[in-house]
Amino acid sequence: MDNYITLQLLADDGSPIEQECMIIGVFDVDGQDYIALAPTDDTETVLIYGYRPAGEEQFELFEIEEEDTYIKVVAEFNQIISEE
Fold first, then answer.
1. Can you give the residue range of the structural domain that contains 19?
2. Nearest to 48 by CA among 58, 57, 39
3. What element of type H or E holds 72?
4. Strand 4-10 relative to strand 16-29: parallel, antiparallel, unpaired?
5. b/e per residue, 45-82, with b = 16+ CB within 10 A?
6. What distance in Å separates the CA atoms of residue 16 and residue 35, rounded to the nearest whole number?
7. Calpha distance 66→73 (Å, rounded)
């Protein structure tokens, strides 16, 4: 896996934008993989998405739609970071 990924996102006005991110890591919560990304635009934001392999050296990202799941995943990420 490369250390960087470019996300294809939509701006508030619906226009497409690209966001380059550094891959912080992939981690597991309750048998599901998630990925933490840090935008390279010098913000302190961390983006967390669901993650699933989609072939050799390819993967898919998906939004975490359920709020309870998102809260649990963020808490696990914070725990992992605090242990490092």
1. 4-83
2. 39
3. helix 67-83
4. antiparallel
5. eeebbbbeeeeeeeeebeebeeeeeeeebbebbeeeee
6. 22
7. 11
Q: 7-58, pLDDT tens digit by residue?
A: 988 888 989 999 999 999 999 999 999 999 999 987 789 999 999 988 887 8
The two three-digit tokens of residue 28, written as one number: 């597991």
Q: Residues 25, 64: contact at Cβ < 8 Å?
A: no
pTM value surpassing 0.90: no
35-45 pLDDT per residue, tens: 999 999 877 89
CB 50 within 8 A of CB 33: yes
- Nearest C-alpha neighbor of 7 from the set 27, 24, 22, 21: 21
